[in-house]
Amino acid sequence: MRVLSLEGITMQFGGLTAVGDVSFEVKEGELFGLIGPNGAGKTTVFNMITGHYKPTRGKIYFKEMEITGLVPDRITRMGIARTFQNIRLFQDLTVLENVMVAQHHNISSGGQAAKWFLKSVTRIGYAAKEREMKEKAMSLLNVLGIEGLANDKSGSLSYGAQRLLEIARAMATGASLLLLDEPAAGMNASETAQLVHTIRKIRDDFSLTVLLIEHDMKLVMGLCERIMVLDYGRTISEGDPAYVQKDRKVIEAYLGKEWVTIGR
Ligand SMILES: Nc1ncnc2c1ncn2[C@@H]1O[C@H](COP(=O)(O)OP(=O)(O)OP(=O)(O)O)[C@@H](O)[C@H]1O
């Protein structure tokens, strides 16, 4: 079954066509990669799916329901969650609190709202509710392998751990489709290798569908089952990793000739 479907999506900013007539489908349970050079339009595609931008033209469907132009909060509640290229965590809340706040995904704005939410849950005495939220949040941190950092302030974490926390937060919304924007950015080689394993595991254990943007080609080629390549807002290739990495258009526009000899 297809989970996500984009039909002829176009996004113009004044005279600039950031994304031009892009169509693709992501099937349930798939690990789908969106790649291409800087400025190709990848994040703009994410922003249209999540309702941060309204497409100039085209339609977007999630599980056969049209979601084009719906507000981000509504789209999150329908089951789509994302991480951001520039990490967006509540830096002065703990790791555990960050995940607990994300469970209540209506509270998506500023740190004050997040603090108010946590305080009211505790003060009004929803002890059982709080305990349940804590347990769920801890189990997500466990899955991501950062449970040992639960009581640390998120601002004190390494870059790699912050990226994992962002994934935990996206999962905490109860989403069935995760959009990950450069999840390996800032990670070292061993963290990246572990991330491949983790993304596969959460896909399997939580029956998720994952759409990701990434510049680390080893991760993309080793993890994704299908890949779409954008260049100047247009689709230049789509297929499995074996096909895409041999496609001359992709090598010329993005991977470079050195990929052919050393990349694999
Ligand atoms: N809000 C905006 N207003 C004007 N131009 C924008 C806006 N958002 C994106 N763009 C432009 O759209 C084009 C595509 O940008 P986008 O961020 O989607 O690329 P990208 O493929 O994600 O790049 P990168 O790999 O560097 O993150 C760029 O030329 C960018 O400057």
Automatic annotation (TrEMBL):
InterPro entries: AAA+_ATPase (IPR003593), ABC_AA/LPS_Transport (IPR051120), ABC_transporter-like_ATP-bd (IPR003439), BCA_ABC_TP_C (IPR032823), P-loop_NTPase (IPR027417)
Keyword Nucleotide-binding: yes
TM spans (from-to): none
GO cellular component, one term: plasma membrane
Keyword entries, A-Z: ATP-binding, Nucleotide-binding, Transport
Gene Ontology biological process: D-alanine transmembrane transport; L-alanine transport; L-isoleucine import across plasma membrane; L-valine import across plasma membrane
PROSITE patterns per record: ABC_TRANSPORTER_2 (PS50893)
Protein name, entry field: Leucine/isoleucine/valine transporter subunit ATP-binding component of ABC superfamily
Native source organism of the sequence: Mesotoga infera
Gene: livG
